[in-house]
Design goal:
heterodimer, A: 456 residues, alpha/beta, Dimethylsulfoxide Reductase, domain 2, nine-stranded mixed sheet, B: 268 residues, mainly beta, 3 helices, 8% helix
């Protein structure tokens, strides 16, 4: 097997073939990177989309301290000691983020939370969390993107804008690529876009369905009814903004395709109705399996948010918002999710890993994070408002560029990373493994009843 | 027995031991040593409550307890009187007895309740009498009266219980209802009864009905007259006498499920 990494000693340049971009949930693993090893920058990112290029080409090694406590530079071990003490002393600590780091690092976090009797929550709770709840309620008619590429002749996007959020989703997986049973690419597919407004995505649509804002559930309910043989109501246009003829045509196309797929975005999960909206969509896909093969999948945002769901599910049984206060995992979004816990002023310590809630959470939550009542610990690759406000701040290297590991693509397929160049900052895995060992030792010293007895 | 909150918990306090089944057998000194969970730490009940004997033959709890969860959990008999606001999971999995709250209640009241009664004089939160996430059946018996307003997902997946709401309801009232009765007097949110299989939802206010419900008739169900008189006698909910002899539009749904549910809407 030949190595994909070639060194060019004359200009000290390195070419990395088949590198993985971890910017969005597509996790494209066919990028060719050209790295200037002297300047420690990526100079070219062949085949990357506009977002991928921005991700790779703008990455620089910042001249910042690795660890700080209250703004003062300290050693990594001192920062880890302080973080461990804060977490073990807390009565209701919360650990949040995780979507922009590797699965191996995410795996270290669950035992930390178990030992400190805290809550683990991922950024899923503010994006596709409702879909996670709907999976439990109605099930997930699942697939991989490879199947979509090779088989799907009916592709629907609902409440998302992949042209701008996942630019290569069309060309690599779902719209234009030629597949085993789709020899003519887009010509063999019917592409339907459902959204409340015309976006760039609507440009690729064979059928664009403009639904009234906040009426997605009603339209899904009418489609479900029509699939089950219930007559489409005469006033469907008045209710949903979509004509009766179009609804009937859509149902016929869905029932008569060979392999249908619906990708859905936050237009569905973060609007009124939330988990019931996602649930209705997945129930529609499930119902359609009476006639043909039909699947649905959320179009996930962050590079490894799918991995966070998978790792937390694998270790606790639930995908996000899992509480260990009583020594066993309990799942209850709204009660144990970060925004709610912080807004109610409950958490007395918060460790934020690879996320920036101070920049984008509601004000009461930010106020609590910044207050004396909550010890804030930040582990992040960049300087952010969260790392600036943190009591303990640790800067780590960037996954996919400086450190390797495993990430999950949005269809739950694990992909290995090929890092481009080294960083002076430690990886998330190294920091979290050290923290895990220290927290476990402290938990045993303090006779915490739920301290894990040994590493697994 | 009377418990009075003297220290506000810093983080959520889980107090499933505060139930007549546990405390009625104990003396006040023993009650003070009953274990509660303050976040992830085990604490004594006495750390947060003053315990004294009560003249009344019931368990009285007093204070602003919005951070206190699981009071009356697994309760099978007896009575709890709560003076003040109460936090989530009140009466979780209770099988009998009576809980009266003179104040507001948090989210997730009476999940998995199978018997007994809860009466809240103030407002309630989200997911009252709702199935836990992932469960298809929630409350399977008992009666819940909320005189004020409630938020979303009232009676999600409920079977065979009765809920009366004096005020407004949020969205998805009676969603995935298996059976049982929900009666509401105030303004309704959207998508009432979505996915209901059987059961009855009775609304006094006009509401947006999902397109998968079909209209049946206008009629005056006799049992409603008895129901209204029961509400008038048992609660302080003030309602117009016209409801008692009023006519109701009957809608059947949800056609996506079994279509055996009924939605009764008062005809003004």
């Amino acid at each position: 097997m030949s190595s994909a990494i070639k060194d060019n000693s004359i200009v000290n340049e390195k070419i990395i073939e088949d590198a993985t971009c971890t910017f969005c949930g597509c996790c494209c693993d066919d990028i060719t990177l050209t790295v200037d090893l002297d300047k420690k920058v990526i100079t070219k990112a062949k085949d990357a989309c506009v977002l991928g290029k921005a991700w790779f080409l703008n990455h620089v090694i910042e001249d910042k301290p690795i660890a700080r406590i209250d703004g003062k530079e300290v050693t990594l071990d001192e920062a880890i000691e302080e973080a461990a003490q804060n977490l073990i002393d807390a009565k209701f600590p919360i650990v949040y983020g995780l979507s922009d780091t590797i699965c191996e690092a995410q795996r270290q976090v669950v035992p930390i939370v178990d030992d400190i009797g805290g809550t683990i929550d991922t950024t899923t709770s503010v994006c596709h969390g409702p879909s996670g709840m709907a999976f439990q309620g109605v099930g997930e008619p699942s697939m991989t993107l490879g199947e979509v590429k090779n088989r799907a002749d009916f592709v629907m996007y609902w409440g998302g804008n992949p042209a701008e959020a996942h630019p290569r989703h069309f060309s690599r997986y779902a719209v234009t690529p030629k597949g085993m049973f789709i020899p003519n690419g887009k010509d063999d597919r019917t592409v339907v876009i459902v959204d409340v407004r015309q976006t760039k995505t609507a440009g690729v649509a064979d059928i664009f369905v403009q639904v009234k804002p906040g009426k997605d559930f009603e339209l899904l309910w009418i489609l479900r009814g029509a699939v089950k043989g219930i007559e489409v109501p005469e006033n469907v246009e008045e209710i949903t903004g979509v004509s009766r003829e179009l609804v009937i045509d859509l149902v016929n196309k869905m029932k008569n395709c060979k392999y249908g797929v619906i990708f859905f975005g936050m237009g569905l999960t973060m609007t009124r109705g939330r988990h019931f909206n996602s649930g209705a969509l997945m129930a529609l896909a499930t119902d359609l399996n009476e006639f043909t093969h039909f699947v649905a999948k959320p179009a996930r945002g962050h590079g490894n948010v799918t991995g966070a769901d998978n790792v937390v599910s694998w270790q606790t049984g639930y995908p996000f918002g899992v509480n260990f206060s009583r020594g066993y995992p309990r799942f209850n979004p709204g009660e144990f999710t970060t925004v709610d816990t912080l807004t109610r002023g409950e958490a007395d310590a918060a460790m934020i890993i690879a996320s920036d809630p101070v920049a984008n959470f509601p004000k009461p939550a930010i106020d609590h994070l910044k207050s004396d009542k909550c010890k804030l610990i930040s582990i992040d690759t960049k300087q952010t408002p969260t790392s600036e406000a943190a009591h303990v701040s640790i800067q780590t290297s960037t996954y996919g560029i400086n450190t390797g590991g495993t990430v999950y693509r949005m269809d739950d397929v694990p992909i290995s990373l090929r890092p481009a160049f080294d960083s002076p900052f430690p990886g998330d895995l190294e920091v979290l493994t050290k923290l895990r060992k220290r927290v476990n030792k402290l938990a045993k010293e303090k006779n915490r009843p739920y301290a894990t007895s040994k590493y697994i | 027995m009377k418990l009075k909150l003297h220290t506000q918990p810093e983080v959520p306090l889980e107090a499933e031991s505060i139930t007549p089944d546990v405390l009625n057998k104990l003396k006040p000194k023993e009650v003070e040593k009953v274990k509660l969970f303050h976040g992830n730490r085990e604490v004594n009940l006495g750390d947060f409550f003053n315990v004294s004997k009560s003249k009344l033959d019931l368990l009285e709890v007093e204070g602003d307890m919005f951070k206190i969860k699981y009071i009356g959990a697994n309760m099978s008999s007896g009575e709890i009187l709560i003076n003040g606001n109460i936090g989530p999971h009140l009466g979780s999995a209770m099988t009998g007895g009576f809980i009266k709250v003179n104040g507001d209640a948090g989210d997730w009241i009476a999940p998995e309740m199978s018997g007994g009664r809860i009466h809240i004089t103030g407002n309630g939160g989200h997911c009252i009498a709702s199935a836990y996430r992932g469960a298809s059946t929630g409350v399977s018996g008992g009666e819940i009266i909320i005189e004020g307003n409630v938020k979303n997902e009232l009676g999600h997946g409920m079977s065979n219980a009765t809920i009366i709401v004096g005020g407004m309801c949020g969205d998805f009232t009676g969603v995935n209802l298996n059976s049982g009765t929900i009666l509401t007097f105030g303004e309704m949110g959207i998508r009432t009864g979505a996915g209901m299989k059987r059961g009855t939802i009775i609304c006094m206010d006009n509401l947006e009905i999902l397109p998968t419900f079909s209209y049946d008739c206008l009629y005056s169900p006799i049992y409603l007259k008895l129901f209204f008189r029961y509400i008038r006698d048992k609660t302080k909910i003030k309602f117009d006498e016209k409801f008692i002899d009023g006519k109701f539009h009957r809608w059947s749904g949800d056609a996506i499920e079994m279509n055996r549910g009924e939605l009764l809407v008062f005809s003004a």
